[in-house]
Amino acid sequence: MFKSILKTSAAMSLIVASVATVAAPLQEPVNLDQLLQQLEQGQFAQSQQNKEREQAFRAQAAQQQQLLRDAIAERTRLEQRAEQLETRFENNETDLAGLSDTLTQRMGSLKELFGVLQQVANDAASQFQNSVISAQYPGRSEQLTQLAEKMGSSSKLASIEEIEQVWFALQKEMTESGKVARFETQVTEADGEKDNDEVVRVGAFNLVADGKYLEYLPTTGSVVELVRQPSGRYLASAEAIEAANGGVVEFGLDPTGGSILGLLVQAPSLSERVEQGGAVGYVILALGAIGLLFALERFISLLLVGAKVKRQLKQTSARNDNPLGRVMQVKDNNPEADTETLELKLSEAILREVPKLTRNLTFIKIISVVAPLMGLLGTVTGMIVTFQAITLFGTGDPKLMAGGISQALVTTVLGLVVAIPMTLLFATLNTRSKNLVHVLQEQASGIIAERSERS
């Protein structure tokens, strides 16, 4: 029991020590008398502190009552203010609804006008962004886009200045589309290098510089040179319009703004067409080149021989540098021969000259016959390739069959291109050689008739 009393007393002393903040720190008790004395001192200090607090609270009670009355009065005033504001808010809502109805009635078709204006601004912004005129006047589409977004995201109406801005932009687009203008800008060339060049803009259709067609990229707002250019006659028109200072100039205009030009530059060139013919196409062209060389040689040779024969016809003495002179020398070499012998010798001399006059004509004729057959061979080969592609991949993608079909058609065209000129050349050269042989035979017949009359 003594221990429990000691523990209880110690706990109470700790509580008293923690509450009495103004009391002096106590020394640790040695015996029960000191502990009891310390407890008495702690109770006295705590009672004294509580009394002081009560006196201070009573002294401030009047002040607290005044603060309470002021707070109640402020609350009452604010409640009244809230009621007034709520009443005003309801009145404003009623007035606003009435004004909105009045505004809607008074606007009428004007609201539809602003809706059309917003649509026109959006359409014009899209058109300006893709127009080549933006290469000379950048930033036009952003202004119209901002105006359209402003009119669509808010209930504010467009001002007179903003309406005039749309009208002015459309008018400028129409005006510039009818001009051929020159301006300086940065051009990205086909090899990737960038350089400031003078660009000629043909309305809203094409851009050219240094005799080449350019392309305007709306995503980056840059001007780039086409990697593949159209055929030479279009490039010649581009150079002409660059060099012109006025007047009318022929120019390859693209009214679609680049679509036709994009398809035109994708068309294969003559060399690419020939490559599509494959090995058969190259063989046909080689035969055509050889036949053309033979035809050229025969044409020059027959032309020279014909000129010599014409000179020989005007002379009485036989010359050894032409077929007719060599045939006439047979008469001079056989003055005592009878008519039949002379006729045989003249026929022999003519037969000796015929191979020289008709040399290589047979080969030209063979080429004119073989060339279309080679084209037919290429056609069959191309169709085989096409059917193999159909067997492997089906008919879903026509591009897979395009290679074989191109080979089939190109070889056919090459065969006809070689065969037709070779046929015409053979006919022309054969006719010329026959005419020379006919002259030899005619003169030989005259010589025989003259010998017969003399006999």
Automatic annotation (TrEMBL):
It is a multi-pass membrane protein. This is TonB system biopolymer transport component. Residues 61-102 form a coiled coil. InterPro entries: ExbB/TolQ_transport (IPR050790), MotA/TolQ/ExbB-rel (IPR017270), MotA_ExbB_proton_chnl (IPR002898). Residues 1-23 form the signal peptide. It comes from the Bacteria. Its main location: membrane.
